[in-house]
Predict the structure.
Amino acid sequence: MSEPELTTLCEDPSTAKLLAIVSVEQVDRVRCGQPNCGHTVYRRIHVVREGATLLVLGSTCLAKRYETDTALGLARFGCGAGRPLTDAERQLLVDNTEALLARFEEEAALLQAAKVKPLPPASHPRPIKATASTCTAAISAGDALGMGKAMVLCYLFEAQRPNETS
C-alpha cells in the first residue's frame, strides 16, 4: 500500500506548538488526524496546537507537515516514545483532546506545588560538619527517596581528622 499524499501542510509553522507526545497500547491505537492520512498510531502520538486547532499526528505526518519531526522542539508533556496513557486518558485523547491537556496541566501544577519550598534564611538549620562520604550517602538516600540531588542540602566543611577533637 502506498503512502497517502499529504496535501495539507502547515502554512505558518511558527503558530504550531508541540504540546504532548503520548502513547497507547498497540491494540488501542488511534487514528492520525492529518488530512488524507488514515493511518493508526500507538507510539509517539503528537498533540499539536496550530492556531485554534488541535491535531493528533503520527511521527511521519508530523515530519511531513512541519518538514522535520523536530521542527516544533520539545513537547510540554511527554517525551521519547511518549507518555503512556491510561484507558481513560486514551478516551479523552480521542473524544476531548482539550480536556486531556487540561488534565496534564493540572497534574503539572500539583507536582510544582508539591516541591519543597526553601525556608526563610532565619529558620535555616545550622550547617553541620560533614565529610564527602557523608554527603554522598545523603545524596544517595535522597535519590532513593526520589528527591534528587537538587533537593538534598549538604554543607561540606573540612572533615575532622579522627585524632582531632572539636
